[in-house]
Design a protein that fits this description.
The chain is 28% helix and 23% strand. It has 367 residues and is α/β, with parallel strands linked by helices. Helix 11 crosses helix 12. The mean pLDDT is 96. The structure holds pyridoxal-5'-phosphate.
């Protein structure tokens, strides 16, 4: 029997979450973001789960080419664009849209001798993330340079928000980034009043939590997998977990008060305890920094991890679950135990847990 560690990927949950994103703002077109192998769910599962999306957005050119080979006909957006001019022939041939975020990319496009109107671009503005994009004051110039290239067809205005999920007023509020964005595009709109420029700004948090920010296209990622950047909201919005990580109890130890558990002996039993050993460790993607107390379900009952996460195993307190046996089912995250709750206990975010799921974990796909 293989090791009893399985990630169940639910295509129906992905479809449900996409439909929910659509119903939130029916007039907004959706790029379903499937970078990083659909946030760890598998590229093909992402394509199938989001077949109703208006397009798929990702970072990896080789994955984008794979999507075309699998028959994806709708738009594909490369969220960081291309990295060298050698990428451009595949980009054109496979009809991909690209982000353009720096002058070096524009120079490559100028030299590429594209056939007329062969490429749609998302021109990225840096409104305060300070990673990719042109400053608002440099945006119109970048636009003009791009517009002068005959190979470029549509230019969509794009930016990305730093604090869309913030619970308190952040140093850089959404409203300030939105103001910078509007100021950066005003000149272009005035100069080119006849051209219809689309806008694409919203990630999951903007899409769900900021109805005041509307644009033609949104780019939801995490919500489509049933996670949200800030805790409770995934269930509040009726999102379903697309990934559930299950395992089993593979051994049980009865230890006396004063005994400690695992590497570094970081947990000492305050009284006699029953400890369950679970077939899942950091080599499977379980976060090694998860502390004592991280929630885990055994036989549907919530208990807590005790002791350090090892490469292939973790240990839980079974004192409150006396009927647990070797073979009892365990849920590490997903249905019944929100991934965001586990992530928060481990000092990280659901995104990281999904994306870090290791290749050795068996994926079982359900419709
Ligand atoms: C990953 C990514 C998204 C999706 O963000 P979520 O928080 O997962 O919704 C949107 N836009 C860009 C540019 C991204 O890189």
């Amino acid at each position: 029997m293989p090791r009893p560690l399985i990630a169940t990927i639910r295509i129906d949950a992905m479809r449900h979450n996409l439909a929910l994103a659509k119903s939130r703002h029916p007039d907004t077109k959706l790029w379903a973001v499937i970078k990083a192998h659909a946030y760890g769910h598998g590229l093909k599962n992402g394509m199938r789960g989001f077949e109703a999306a208006d397009g798929l957005a990702l970072i990896e050119l080789e994955s984008a080419i794979q999507l075309r080979a699998w028959g994806w006909k709708k738009p594909i957006l490369l969220l960081e664009g291309f990295f060298e001019s050698a990428d451009l022939s595949a980009v054109i041939q496979e009809r991909m849209d690209v982000c353009v975020h720096c002058n070096e990319q524009i120079a490559m496009l100028e030299q590429a001798k594209l056939s007329p109107s062969s490429l749609d671009v998302h021109l990225k503005m840096n409104t305060g993330m300070n990673r990719l994009g042109f400053m608002p004051t440099a945006y119109a110039a970048a636009y003009s340079r791009l517009r002068a290239i005959p190979g470029i067809r549509n230019i969509t205005f794009m930016t990305h928000f730093a604090n869309a999920d913030a619970l308190q007023t952040p140093r850089l509020p959404v409203s300030e980034q939105w103001r910078r964005f509007q100021s950066g595009i005003t000149d272009i709109k005035d100069r080119d009043p006849n051209e219809q420029h689309k806008q694409c700004v919203a990630n999951s948090a903007i899409h769900m939590l900021h109805p005041e920010i509307r644009s033609d296209w949104a780019r939801p990622g995490i919500m489509l997998y049933g996670g949200m950047p800030n805790q409770q909201t995934a269930q509040e919005f009726g999102l379903l977990p697309a990934m559930t990580l299950h395992s089993e109890i593979v051994a049980i130890q009865s230890i006396s008060a004063g005994e400690s558990i695992g590497y570094g002996s970081t947990y000492t039993a305050p009284q006699a305890m029953t400890i369950g050993v679970i077939a899942c460790g950091y080599a499977d993607g379980y976060p090694r920094h998860a502390p004592n107390g991280t929630p885990i379900l055994v036989d549907g009952i919530k208990t807590q991890m005790v002791g350090r996460v090892s490469m292939d195993m973790i240990t839980v307190d079974l004192s409150t679950i006396p009927h647990a046996r070797v073979g009892s089912p365990v849920t590490l995250w997903g249905a019944g135990l929100p991934i965001d709750e586990v992530a928060s206990a481990a000092g990280t975010i659901g995104y990281e847990l999904m994306c870090a799921l290791a290749p050795r974990v068996t994926r079982v796909v359900t419709e």
